Amino acid sequence: MTTYLKLNKGFSLVELLVVVAIIGTLSGIGLIAYNLYITASQKKITESNHTNLTKRVMTSMMVCDAGMELILNDENGKTTDQCDKMKEENLANFRTALVKHFQNGERWCSPFGQYDGGICVAAVIEGEDYEDFNNPSMPGVSKLIYGTNIAGKICQSIFIRTEILPSEYKESTVCKP
Fold it and tell me: Is the pLDDT at 49 greater than 80, yes or no?
């Protein structure tokens, strides 16, 4: 009489299903952690951009106040001295020159990666006058707004409002000395 031994080669269906379930669970947890990491990074970059933008606006005003030239970039390249725009009756034209500089010269893009026809969405846009302003259109975007006597300060101001995350904003006011 011949006895045949049954040799198990391979995995059972139950073992394979358990492995697939474990991999799926770990992937799901990893994807959630990755998305939280990306959102936190985008938020930090947007907050940093807001701080840097505020400092750059303040520095530009101080350069003009010191009697130096402020050369920016616009869609045509380098500009002439922009300090005359700060000396005008309001800062609206100065604000426009700054926005063009950040859109065309330095090309600040929203860290949230929105693209319009293959071109990044500008991180700095021009806003209305303070009395009429609307919030920025999406996270990662800062709006430069002109106003007078903003935030209890008696001066002409560039008001910067940045949407950090949906419905979360950061604001700064830079007064014309």
Answer: yes
Angle between helices 13-65 and 92-100 (to 10 degrees): 130
- Residue ranges per domain, the chain? 14-175
- What is the residue-wise DSSP string for the chain? ---PPPPP-S--HHHHHHHHHHHHHHHHHHHHHHHHHHHHHHHHHHHHHHHHHHHHHHHHHHHHHTT-----EETTEE-S--HHHHHSSSSHHHHHHHHHIIIIIS--B-TT--EETTEEPBSEEEEEEGGG----SSTT-EEEEEEESGGG--SEEEEEEEEEETTEEEEEEEE--
Q: What is the pTM of this model?
A: 0.80
Give the model confidence (pLDDT) of 121-136 as tens digits: 888 988 877 766 778 8
The residue that leads in pLDDT, 148 or 53, is 53
